């Protein structure tokens, strides 16, 4: 098996399960034109996020790590017209590209981007006692996943679904001796999930157009 085969398979799967979508394609094109890194979720993973949020019946969605808003658009489309998605982004330029992409997708009424360090924003949410979220997607810096998990659990309620992206990193996360802050962060995140009796979790490895990576899914009880 090699990456060319994974890519060919992803192309086949996306061809058979997705319809051309001008807003999503424009979001990727403007992100590339504006110099953003191509580290958005793959189309089939974006659709999975949308379907999971739909299955959950989510009315309030929280995303950490907006980039150009590609995953934001997938998730926001799972919402009813009076739903809410809040996405947190540290880099002003990313947020500004994302806002245009969200607007073009006709989702400005449900999705809003908040600029700042996600830890600071989450702490302010906890302080302000904002209503809990139904679906949470962790996809900002991986070294901070432990801090994010601690905070988003305080913004959850029984039934909240938490999906965390990039928890495999080409298998590096299995390396107990790794000095990579991202790997250390993801391993601590898994330790916290393992120790928390109020969270049911699984994690899945993926190969495809984004290489070898994967995600975890947790349900809060
Ligand atoms: N969810 C996007 C990809 C996000 S890439 C998609 O799939 O389309 C990760 C993003 O997290 C980057 O835009 C990066 O600027 C942002 N980020 C990194 N550290 C952050 C922090 N401390 N707080 C908020 N956002 C952060
Ligand atoms: C990186 C971040 C992501 O969210 C992703 O999906 C892939 C890579 C990164 O920071 O390298
Ligand atoms: Mg990611």
UniProtKB/TrEMBL annotation:
GO terms for molecular function: O-methyltransferase activity; S-adenosylmethionine-dependent methyltransferase activity. The keyword Hydrolase does not apply. GO terms for biological process: methylation. Pfam families: Methyltransf_3. Keywords: Methyltransferase, S-adenosyl-L-methionine, Transferase. PANTHER family: CAFFEOYL-COA O-METHYLTRANSFERASE 3-RELATED, O-METHYLTRANSFERASE-RELATED. This is Methyltransferase. It comes from Caballeronia zhejiangensis.
